[in-house]
Every structure is written in structure tokens, then in C-alpha cells.
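so ive been stuck on this for like two days lol. basically i have the seq below and the ligand is pyridoxal-5'-phosphate, smiles is in there too. i just want the complex predicted, nothing fancy, no docking runs or whatever. if the output looks off dont worry ill sanity check it later, just need somthing to start from for the group meeting slides
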Amino acid sequence: MSRVYNFSAGPAVLPEPVLEELAAEMMDYNGTGMSVMEMSHRSAAFQKIIDDAEQDLRDLMNIPDNYKVLFLQGGASQQFAMIPLNLMKNKVADFIVTGQWAKKAYQEAQKYGKANKIASSEDKTFSYIPDCSDLPVSPDADYVYICENNTIYGTKFKQLPDTKGKDLVADVSSCFLSEPVDVSKYAIIYGGVQKNIGPAGMVIVIIREDLIREDVLPGTPTMLTYKTHADAGSLYNTPNSYCIYVCGKVFKWLKGLGGLEAMKRMNEEKAAILYDYLDQSRLFKGTVVKEDRSLMNVPFVIGDKDMEAKFVKEAAEHGLVNLKGHRTVGGMRASIYNAMPKAGVEALVAFMKKFEEENI
Ligand SMILES: *Cc1c(COP(=O)(O)O)cnc(C)c1O
């Protein structure tokens, strides 16, 4: 067996101790004689898995009692529709467009009401977070929407926007559980789990209870109504049961490491290794303004397409894979999520140094 260092943006690296437990429990989960994939989602064994997963997530994030935790399918992209369908009472929402994912959410919301772009960083290829201290928030906005960590561009809101009292909705797909958050500052905080938590095929939605209601927009499908899932404890229909089980294991792994404070320290340490190197490199250059840099996704360029292709190819030959950047930024991107060990970042930087010496 030979594992690589996988810098994919998602689906992405999972913690090895979790993968080992999954393998060990594959044939017989906890004396049931079957794998979790083969188990009824109505069984007592599975009910315990989902209950424990929810409780561990509540513990990790300090989720207040007046918030529901929903394990849903359809990925983060389905939330781009589900949020306006459920929240657009006045049919108005404000969007801060800091990348492709925020833009997609903004465009989808236009189907259901008036979506206003109140700030954007598109003028400079989304390489920064706009000033959000005095935004033209619409007086009748049902919510203000952000994508908190921009997976493609490598920017992160270090401070939440001043929404002038309006509810804040945040897509945290690529920074979920990377550091502590104050859930009470959000109306909805959600993310696809395949970036920083578990396997593909599920989104976790943490939603304040008063936003779970029956008077959603006319024509909203039952499956796209938060109330359907909240009332049924995420078991209205068959959930992505295996994904819930894997995420639960990751939550326990995070708790074992000391929770989100500890995770934040580790992530800062890892990111500093890469950013410090980039800041003094004569060959590689980061693409994001310093103060808005993500701890999770680190895009960088050489500025010469052939040289970049050579780097990506040679890195892969050294077991450092999935470093090609997103097509809209070019160059490279290293996603260094929670499960990426420090040794992986050190190996990447060592390889970059060698490549720089050989190619400058
Ligand atoms: C990947 C990603 C998405 C889309 O996730 P899907 O689960 O594929 O729909 C949305 N938002 C952000 C920030 C992402 O990184």
C-alpha cells in the first residue's frame, strides 16, 4: 500500500485513523454482522450513529439549542435553491459575491425573488474580500448571503460582514470545522461535507429554528422544505447513511485532537509553512492579498504555463497529487484541509524548493 499526499479541493483527503476504522468495521459493524452501508436507516444501530454524529457536532461547534442540525443530500449546490425557497419571505436577498460559488448562489436566487449583489471582488479575479463594514444592505432583505471560504480563489472572510441586523447565511463548505465559530451569529451555516469533513454526497445545514416554517414559497417541493427534514430528524427519507457514519467518525477524531481550537492552531501552523515559503520564493507567487488568505485553499502561480504543467506533473511523480489550479485561476492550488498532515505540507514545500532551485 502506498498513500499519496492528496491536495484535492474536494472530494478530499480523509484522516487515516478514520479510514482504518472504516476498513475494520466494513464486514461487521459493532456486532451487527453487516456494514453500515447494508443497514436499515430505521434500525436502532443506525439511530445511534446519527444521534451520536449530531451530538458530537453540537459539542465541537457549541451549537445553541435553538438551532437544528440537518443531514441532507443534493450537495451544497442544492442549498443555492433551498435557501431562497425557504427564507425569501419578502422575496429579497443580498449577496456578497466573492467567487464562483457565491455567484452561483446569487444567480440561483434570482429565480425566486430579487437577488441584489451588494459587494463583489470580481474586478480582481476574486483575489480579495471586499470591505463589508458599511454595505448597502436592502431594508427588506430576508438575509445576507456569503461564501465564507472561497475554495477556488483561496480567500476567507476574517471578519463577518456587518449585515445591519439582517440574518446572515453562510456557505462554509471548504472551512467547515477548520476553526471555532460563533454559530449564534448566523441564521444558517451550511456546507457540503466532501471538502473538509467526509465523503461526497451530503450537506450539513445548521439552521436557527424560527427559520424552519411551513409558509415557504409556493411550489417548493416537500424534499426542499427544511421543515420536512427538521421534523423527521433528517430521516424523512433514506439519508446518505454511510456518509453520516463517516462524518461521525471524523467528529470523534476532531474531538480526540482537542476540538476546533486545537484544529485552528494546527491549520495555522500548516498554512504558515506554505505561505512563508511563497512569500520569499523567486519562482512561485501566491495569488491572494495577504490579509484575506485562506487557511484551507492556497492558490499559487509561476506565471509560465509550461513550467506550471511541469511542476504539477513532477510533483505527482513525487506523491504530491491534485495540485493543478482551478481553470479560472490557472497555476496551482494546494488544499490543506484538516486531514492533511503537517508532514504533507512540509513535503510539498521541500519539493517546491527543489523545483525552484532546478528551474530558476
Ligand atoms: C464545492 C463547493 C460547493 C459545491 O458543492 P457540491 O456539494 O458539489 O454542490 C459549494 N460551495 C463551496 C464553497 C464549495 O467549495
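Residues 89 and 142 are 7 Å apart (CA to CA). The mean pLDDT is 97.
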